[in-house]
Design brief:
By secondary structure, the chain is an alpha+beta fold. It has five helices and nine strands.
Length: 244
Amino acid sequence: MLIVCTSSTDVDYATTGDVLGLLFNSTTTAGPGSTQEVDRIGRLVTRASAWADAHVGRPLALQVYSETLAAYGGRQLMVSRRPLVKVLRLFDSSATCDATEYCSTSYRVEDREAGLISRDGGFAWTRVDELSGGDFSLGLAAARLPRREARPWLVEYVAGYSVVGSTTTSFGVSSGAEEYTTGPTLPPDVTQAVTLRAAEMYSNPLGVSQRSVGDLSVTYRGRNTMIGVMSEAEVLLAPYRSAG
């Protein structure tokens, strides 16, 4: 189970100025012409930012999450949102009556981009189903059903990138902490991808890539996943996509 505890108010990963600069970057090119058009571009930036979230498979903006996780007997847990900025609290159970909270010195963030939390004592395998040998494996050995692990580990954490003007103090990170930042951490590739997408939506809202006059033929642009053809914006976001 994944719950968003605190959401970022910064949801635009580019600015209207970024898109205006791309669309009207020449002295010979006319500008948008009206404040209504500028407002429209601003709305397209918001839509393009939402598209970026959907394309990579997770929100990119900084947020606080509460997530229950299964463990498999190793020394690491993997949260589903990344980059992992800070672990706020870690419990061995989602039941408040008997949960044990682990001290922050007993675990560490191993890999922020992968969302990995490490603990020297490990995380016990949370299997719940075990069958006798005769039930499943013809009496040769005991067997356990796959993919039936419980999810007792409860992690509250901060993940994502801070956007322009963001600070991390409102997300459980103190100003003296290593993770604290007052500036943006959003990768430039994400900003560029959103800028390209918003500009494309403005200049070609129907997604037409080819027109013909004779016999009226119209071709719409789209990504052909069978042959791996992607737009430039999708190429820029490819390193940030979640698996699955």
